[in-house]
Amino acid sequence: MLRTLFRAGGAILQQTQRTAPRLWVTPAQQRWASSLPMNTVVLFVPQQEAWVVERMGRFHRILEPGLNFLIPILDRVRYVQSLKEIVIDVPEQSAVSLDNVTLQIDGVLYLRILNPFKASYGVEDPEYAVTQLAQTTMRSELGKLTLDKVFRERESLNSNMVHSINQASDDWGIRCLRYEIKDIHVPPRVKESMQMQVEAERKKRATVLESEGTREAAINVAEGRKQAQILASEGQKEEQINKAAGEAQAVLAKAEAKSKAIRLLSDALAEQNGNAAASLSVAEQYVSAFSNLAKESNTILLPSNTGDISGMVTQAMTIYSTLAKTTPRIAEAVEEKMKALPVLSLLLCVCSVFFVGIYLFVGGFLLVRLEVNRTSTCGDVLQPGGGEPSAAAAAAADFCRARPRFRRAVLLVVDALRIDFARFDARNAAPRPHENKLPVLQEAAAARPAHGRLFPFRADPPTTTMQRIKGFTTGSLPTFVDVGNNFASSAILEDNLIHQFGQAGKRVVFMGDDTWESLFPKKFHRSLPFPSFNVKDLHTVDSGILQHLYTTMMGGDWDVLVAHFLGVDHCGHRFGPDHPAMADKLTQMDGVIRAVIDRLQNDTLLVVMGDHGMTDTGDHGGESHKETDAALFLYSPAPLFPGPPSQSEPDVVPQTDLVPSLALLLGVPIPYSSVGQVLLPLFPPHGQTDGAVGGLSQLEALWINAKQVNRFLETYSGMAKDIPPENLSQLKDEFSRLSSEYLATVGEGRPPSPELAASLQAYLTSVRDTCRATWARFNPLKMAAGLVILAFACLTCFILSELSLTLIREDGRGLKGPVVTALAAAVCVAAGQLLTQGYVEVAWCLAAAALSSELLFLWTAYRSRVTAVSKNGSKALKFASWLTPRQLLTPPLLVPLLRCASLLSDSYVIAEGRVVTFLLFSLALYIPFHLNWDGLLLPPSHDPLKSAGLLPSPALSPSTVRKESGTLLGCVGLLIGSLYLSLSFHGCREEQGACQPSPFLSPLSRLQDSQLKNLHYVLSVFSLGVWTYLLRRCLRHYGNLNSSGGAVFVARWILPLLSVCLGLHWAVSATPEDSFRNLAELISLAQLSLPRAAFCLLGLGLFLIWLDPLTVFIKTRAAASARNSALPPPRYRASTGISPQAELHHLIPQIYQRMRRSLDDGGSSGELSGAGEVDSRPAVEAYGLGTVYSAPLLLFCGLLGIGLLLLHPEGMALSFLLLLLEMGALLHIHASSTTLKGLHGTYSGGFKVPWAPIVMWALAATQFFHATGHLPTFPSIQWGAAFVGFPDGHTGTILPASLVTLNTFASHILFAVACPLLLLWPLVCEVRGSRGGGGRAACGDEGEDAVMEMRLRENPQLFSSALLQLSTRYLFIHGAQVFASVSAAAILRRHLMVWKVFAPKLMFEASGFLVSSVSLLIGVTLVLRVDVAVGRWFKRIIPDVAR
């Protein structure tokens, strides 16, 4: 009976379904309430339909597809809704565009019912409502666009239509999927005008082509005429060359004859009675000159004593004697040069030894963990086996043994999607730009809790993209050194999900960040990579993905789809999270996720995840919670979770846990090296897998996971011995116990206890924690070798600074022994390795070379400790006195020693910026206190012994001492003020808590307040202008802008042009993208061209300074008869003993010229002796000669500083100006201190630079590293510097890495290049008589003239040794800091903060030393280049005869 009733009901139902039309019928749609399905008690609802049932006239429920039962009479099917996609033709309608053109437009609307209840009761006629809404919306949208934009922006118009319709149709339960414009008709007249426009364009092209042809013809005719003229001029040129060659040969013949005559005369003068012969010759020429008087002119000049021939001869011979005495010293000054090769060779050797020590230690400290290059396969049988219901199943593989729960997967990686970006809080009435912009995730999870879930997704540091991709595809843990590979990503060799998908035959399609392409080369079925390094580009990668994402999903040529979006991450880097651009990006991602969810099939799993988070400034790379906590959203149209969220679910999901979970859900083996743990909420509890697809319960998934991790642990422990044996034994015992319990439980068929699953989870967690704690593998032998080499390098550098003069006098011969020994040691070690190991390890060859050379140098220095005799014959200090506590514990050396010791404290490293500022402040105050303690700061009191002449009295006046003291104290005040103001530009570390970073660190494009932006821009441009003005003012003050050389051209033109380019670049960069849309192309061109023009100007300026560094303007002193005329006095004088009169070609006319000038002055022969002789000699006025070395170096540093400022945010211009002021204050403090010591007679002589200014200089470099917003942490790196001038990104990694390095270590570069100024500036600021005896000895009989830097030229050996000593002392301070950082990292390698504080500090300190040493070599080489140019200049000025 019941069977008959069912059959009858089924037949009636089928007949009803065949005859009853639906609510939505196309193309004509009607509503027939009388034709709805009858209530036959048993109803079969077709797939993709929803039947709305009313009970007694009131809504009761919605029948889902399949078998359903209704109560007769009481229940009634009121509405039948189709859940399929519905197509509606929108009738043609007229609309008026923005430029008043009437258009006829029609379209097609694609709809789908999402909520049958709202579709039934929310609106009376859905078709009419949606159609009318589409028509009105279309009119509204067309009214916003011009006719041209209507045709260009159809896609944008369609998307706006969909968005507007969905806002109104959400209350009707209807979702508009897409809207397509079918056709657009324009009025006939408009169409005619469009045709006319096309014809005009074609006519324009024809006209242009015709004009180009005419131009080419004219050019050809002109080229022919040009060639004819060139050939004619070539003939004239050859004729003139032949004539000139003949004349030149005649001149050379005369010159050779004259040269031989002068040599014969010189030889004759050198013989016995040569003076008598000279006297005779002078007398003969004197008489001959009088015999020729009045032959050519009627104007005659006669001396007053024409008959006194003997007096005239005596006067001439006196002049000759003076010239003969001066000539050897002139020749010596011209011919002697600095010892360039020994200086550079010694510095290169010292730097190389430091580099080897750093390389060895870093190689032992930052080793990458051992990678297990094995892969899992579907045929793997994990041990221990068993636990399966049958013996046949017991031998089966653990992986791929059941049909996977999901056939496809879509992985959407939203780079830098922080967890709070993904949360939605309806109570937040005033959300920030990054809040409540991604509601789709929580909406989907709340509406269908069994289908979707949102988790916090925690990444392991370092939080950089490459390491995160490696983490969530391999399941392994990164090491600290992996952060260096973020810009040179190499292929992943470990087993990973992408490889497993390929092995399983799944087609993996990728689109987005091109980092994936380099990590997984040739692993994708299809790949669409886009450049990822340009953080200023917010849209290229995302737009490229959206062009292909939806079409790829609708196709069938994929199994796993990976899309990596970069817009959110780039927006954070460029603007930070609190910016309207971030709101736009998150809103765009919300729409993308909604569209992807709408296109998912039941067998597809959606994974939306962030690879890492970001700080409040938009950076990442560290380990703060905001950087590590990303979002993970799992969703599927089919039920994914066994139940609603419970308390047992994890609060945070580690990224490594995604790997085994995805592998088991998609039916592929878990990657071999994965240490992740399956996400239990994705699997049903034990005993509830009957209806689940795939058949794996939570306990089974944990068991497979535990066996896989145990297999990896056994393999890894057999290959590497870094896991502590006690931990390894404990883990093995725990797994053995758990496997016994699991096998016993399954074998007996009893239900497992909840403690078993908890124990398996605890085991997996223990393995991961153990690996994380031990995978910072160290090589103690390499670390110890690096420490020893660095320690000896510091000692070598210190001793080298004390032996600089000895080594320079030996001309670098002492360097040959260590170099030969180093090469021999390296060859011996390489040979030994080949014999014993069969290969050569370069690190140990370098270690042997460095250590052997250091030991030999130290032994040689120890053996030669007895005495070192200086040039004046006095004994130098003994070797033992250099290392006494009295020498080492002076305040200038005690400060860096204390700082090095403090690097063992993490608190010091965290607060290093302020501590270094305090140390520099303290040392600056020490100098005036120390001078006052020694009685040098004020003029000395009257001493009767000195007045009586019993004690020597230095040449000083009280006013001079007071002036220098005032200068010193004023510069100390300027330095303190600069230090205080520079604290306003510091960044903040994550450990500093409530610290607020400087607002000047943000680029102007991030500022929302226009007034504040304008203020920052004005301050930046003002600082740039002051920088340029101070440089030019200093050069002009010392007379270095008078010549026409390359360096002066740079100072006059390139320096201002570079500043203008920089100011314009700041203005363009600060312009919002949507402010001048009509000028968008011009702005983008300016963003590209202005920085590149600045780079070109910078390169040209530095090249010209190097090519022609002299800034000296020469002018011959006027004749004595013109001395009374109004001529500007020379600012600086060259040594007055030089006689560069180019018109005097041999000796006798030179003597006669002097006699005439002497006679013109009205002097007599007696007045030519003594002091009067010096003033009557011809000399050269050389403007800028006193600063010939420092001027090009100062200009080089100033130009380089503007170039480095280009790579920083605009607000850093103020900080760079403070850097310049601080640099000038330090130089003047050092110069005034040296001058005061010289005025009081306590100056030791020579050019030695004391320790105090060098230590302050090195501290200033570190202090301004922090004052430019940098910190020794990876998140503080200003990556935006890589895109200055390259907004579209780079093809390689060398150029962006170089730009970031220049940005990070700008202060190290500037202070290292300018370090030789410490040697030069006391001479620039020299006061007459301030150098006491040493100064007078250097100047000979001309000690009354302050010749400034020419004093260095007169003693090249002392100059070279002082430069070498200054450089080695500066390297010693930085090397000691590197050694202290290395020691701290080695001693505290197991410290809790080693990877967060000490390891980054080590990396930055080592990199800073590398950059500083290279920059110091550049500065020293520039000084040597200037010395070569000065030598050539003297050779041009002084004639060969005078030399």
TrEMBL record:
Keywords for the protein's UniProt record, in alphabetical order: Endoplasmic reticulum, Glycoprotein, GPI-anchor biosynthesis, Membrane, Mitochondrion, Transferase, Transmembrane, Transmembrane helix
Pfam families according to UniProt: Band_7, Band_7_C, Phosphodiest
Residues annotated as transmembrane: 343-368, 783-805, 817-835, 841-862, 908-929, 1015-1035, 1047-1068, 1088-1107, 1182-1206, 1212-1229, 1249-1266, 1305-1324, 1370-1388, 1408-1426
Electron transport among keywords: no
Domain Band: 40-198
Signal peptide coordinates: none
GO cellular component: endoplasmic reticulum membrane; mitochondrial inner membrane
Subcellular localization(s) per the UniProt record: Endoplasmic reticulum membrane; Mitochondrion inner membrane
One Gene Ontology term from the biological process aspect of the record: GPI anchor biosynthetic process
Pathway field: Glycolipid biosynthesis; glycosylphosphatidylinositol-anchor biosynthesis
Described purpose of this protein according to its UniProt entry: Mitochondrial protein that probably regulates the biogenesis and the activity of mitochondria. Stimulates cardiolipin biosynthesis, binds cardiolipin-enriched membranes where it recruits and stabilizes some proteins including prohibitin and may therefore act in the organization of functional microdomains in mitochondrial membranes. Through regulation of the mitochondrial function may play a role into several biological processes including cell migration, cell proliferation, T-cell activation, calcium homeostasis and cellular response to stress.
Protein known as: GPI ethanolamine phosphate transferase 3, catalytic subunit
Species per Swiss-Prot/TrEMBL record: Scophthalmus maximus (Turbot)
